[in-house]
Amino acid sequence: MLLSAWSLCPSTSTSLGPFPFPPPGSRWCLSLSILKWKILCPRGPPAILVNEVHDINETVQTLQQQLRDSEVTLQMLVHAKSVLEHDLAVKANSLFIDQEKCMGMRKTFPSTTRLLGPV
């Protein structure tokens, strides 16, 4: 008699038999759904749902680890960029000093070919 009440709930897809009195309201239908769940699944949620929750948790942990790894990689790349920019600035300054200050002195000295003479 208890399982025949499921036919009154519109959310259930199978009719389990006639119910002897008029259909109850949606609150009764919800209560019947909960009761049906407890009768058909007395040990708790199905293993499929539990496995899916575990899979989702593992995926979240994996994604969080990948995010941490990506952030570490980003910091290393920012540091490498900073080092390269500093090296570039030093080389640009060295070229400036060579062109502006040393080039004038080089022009006053004779060239190596002139110093060696004809060979």
UniProtKB/TrEMBL annotation:
Its main subcellular localisation, reduced to a broad class, is cytoplasm
Q: Does the keyword Repressor apply?
A: no
One cellular-component annotation, GO? microtubule cytoskeleton
Q: Where in the cell is it found?
A: Cytoplasm, Cytoskeleton, Cilium axoneme
Q: Which GO terms describe its biological process?
A: cilium assembly; cilium movement involved in cell motility
Taxonomically, the superkingdom here is Eukaryota
Pfam family for this entry, one: Tektin
Membrane-spanning regions, if any? none
Keywords tagged on the record: Cell projection, Cilium, Cytoplasm, Flagellum
Q: Which family does it belong to?
A: Belongs to the tektin family.
- Specify the protein name: Tektin
Source organism of the structure: Calidris pygmaea
